[in-house]
Specification:
There is one protein chain. The protein is of the alpha/beta class. The protein folds into two domains: 4-116 and 245-312, FAD/NAD(P)-binding domain, CATH 3.50.50; 119-240, FAD/NAD(P)-binding domain (3-Layer(bba) Sandwich). The protein contains seven helices and 21 strands. The protein has helices spanning 16-27, 61-75, 123-127, 137-140, 156-165, 185-193, 291-312; strands at residues 4-12, 33-35, 49-50, 59-60, 78-80, 84-88, 94-98, 103-111, 115-117, 133-134, 148-152, 171-175, 197-200, 203-212, 215-224, 230-233, 237-240, 244-246, 257-258, 262-263, 277-279.
C-alpha cells in the first residue's frame, strides 16, 4: 500500500524557482513540501562560473544551488528526494504520483520543473550519446584533455560551453548556422579573442562518425548552409548546445502551453489556467531564462499561492 502525504503547497522542481518558492512559502507558514525531481538543483548544477547572480561576482553553479537548498531547509521547507511521475489537476486536492510510490496531495501546486537540453535528432547523434556526444560541457569536458572538439550552436549556451571547454581541449570549433552569434556581447568578445576557439559560420552538423568497438567519436561531417558542401572535421567530442526545451510533460494535457511547450501564466503573475496551480522559472519563461528571473518568479509563485489559499479559507 502506497504512502500518502498531504501538504498545503506542493513544489515540484528544485532549481532557483523551486527553492525560492520554498523559502517564501515556508516563511508564510504554509509548510511547503518540495519534491526535487530527477536533477536536484536544476540546470545550474551543470554550470561552472556564474557571474550574474546578484551579490556574487563569481560563484560555482553547484555551490549556489547547495546554498539555496540549505536556505529553503532552514526556513522550514520539507525537501524530498523523489521524482513526480504523474500529476492529476482535475480534482481537489491535487494528486501527484511519484517514482518512490508515495502519493502527494496538495491544496496548491507550484510547478518549477524547468527546462532540459535540446538535441538535433540525428541518428548518429543518438548513437554516440555518452560516447563522444554530450550536452553538458561541465559534466564531460575533462574527458577531452588535449583533444580537438566541436560545439554546435550560437547562443549563450554554446559560447559558454566553448569557453569552458578550452580549459581541456587543444582546439574548440564552434559551428553555427548563421554568421553572427546570439549571445551576450561580453561572451562574444571572450570567444572571439580566445586563441583556442575557431568559428565555422554557415555550417550545420550533418553526421557524427566513429568506432563501434569500443564506441567512440572520430569526427563529424558538417554541411555549408548555402552551398551544401560537406566538410570533414576530425574531432573526438561533440557538444550539442542549441538551447533548452521546457519540461512540461506532467501538465501538457492539463494546462495551456505556448511557444513550444512553455506553461502559460496570467500577465504579471504565476497563475495558470487552473486556480491553485502556479508555474515559475524556465518552465514558463521563454524570454529571459536567467537564474535571477527564475528565483523572482519562485517568490511570486509562493506569494500567489499564499493569497489563493487565504481566499479559500
Amino acid at each position: 500500500m502506497s504512502d500518502t502525504r498531504h501538504t498545503k503547497v506542493l513544489i515540484i522542481g528544485s532549481g532557483p524557482a523551486g527553492y525560492t518558492a520554498g523559502v517564501y512559502a515556508a516563511r508564510a507558514m504554509l509548510e511547503p513540501l518540495l519534491v526535487q525531481g530527477i536533477e536536484p538543483g536544476g540546470q545550474l548544477t551543470t554550470t561552472t562560473e556564474v557571474e550574474n547572480w546578484p551579490g556574487d561576482s563569481e560563484v560555482q553553479g553547484p555551490d549556489l544551488m547547495i546554498r539555496m537548498e540549505a536556505h529553503a531547509r532552514a526556513m522550514g521547507c520539507d525537501i524530498v528526494g523523489d521524482i513526480i511521475t504523474s500529476l492529476d489537476l482535475s480534482k481537489r486536492p491535487f494528486t501527484a504520483q511519484s517514482d518512490s510510490g508515495t502519493v502527494y496531495t496538495a491544496d496548491a501546486v507550484i510547478m518549477c520543473t524547468g527546462a532540459r537540453a535540446k538535441w538535433l535528432g540525428l541518428p548518429t547523434e543518438e548513437k554516440f550519446k555518452g560516447f563522444g556526444v554530450s550536452a553538458c560541457a561541465t559534466c564531460d569536458g575533462f574527458f577531452y584533455c588535449g583533444m580537438e572538439i566541436a560545439v554546435i550552436g550560437g547562443g549563450n549556451t554554446a559560447v559558454e560551453e566553448a569557453l569552458f571547454l578550452t580549459n581541456f581541449a587543444s582546439k574548440v570549433t564552434l559551428i553555427h548556422r548563421r554568421d553572427e552569434l546570439r549571445c551576450e556581447k561580453i561572451l562574444e568578445h571572450r570567444l572571439l579573442k580566445n586563441p583556442k576557439i575557431e568559428t565555422l559560420w554557415f555550417h550545420e552538423l550533418e553526421e557524427v562518425y566513429g568506432t563501434d568497438s569500443p564506441l567512440g567519436v572520430e569526427g563529424i561531417k558538417v554541411k555549408h548552409t548555402k552551398t551544401g558542401e560537406i566538410t570533414d572535421l576530425p574531432v573526438k567530442g561533440v557538444f550539442i548546445a542549441i538551447g533548452h526545451a521546457p519540461a512540461s510533460e506532467l501538465v501538457k494535457d492539463q494546462l495551456d502551453l505556448h511557444s513550444g511547450g512553455y506553461v502559460a501564466v496570467d500577465a504579471g503573475s504565476t497563475r495558470t489556467a487552473i486556480p491553485g496551480v502556479f508555474a515559475a522559472g524556465d518552465l514558463t519563461d521563454h524570454t529571459y531564462r536567467q537564474a535571477v528571473t527564475s528565483a523572482g518568479m519562485g517568490c511570486m509563485a509562493a506569494l500567489d499561492a499564499e493569497k489563493f489559499l487565504a481566499e479559500q479559507e
